[in-house]
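Hi all, long-time lurker, first post. I run a small reading group and we've been trying to get comfortable going from sequence to structure in the token notation. Rather than ask abstract questions, I figured I'd post a concrete chain and ask someone more experienced to write out its structure so we can walk through it together at our next meeting. Sequence below, copied exactly:
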Amino acid sequence: MDVIKLMEKAIENERRARDMYHEGAAAAEDPETRSIFEQLARWEEDHERILRDRLATLRLIKGQQ
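-- Answer (accepted) --
Happy to help. Here is the structure in token form:
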């Protein structure tokens, strides 16, 4: 598998993790657990952003869109 495809897969994995943590936050019965899930979701959003930025750079280097 090439690097671009790996990055795209990693981005999708981050999205799935983010969605799972949002579901956990919505289902949490206490504020502390909700807060932990919300923080985890934010981290996954940050990871996705970093990967998207890196993917854009890779595509520029390889002349892809």
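A couple of things your group might point at:
The chain is about 90% helix and 0% strand.
The longest helix spans residues 31-62.
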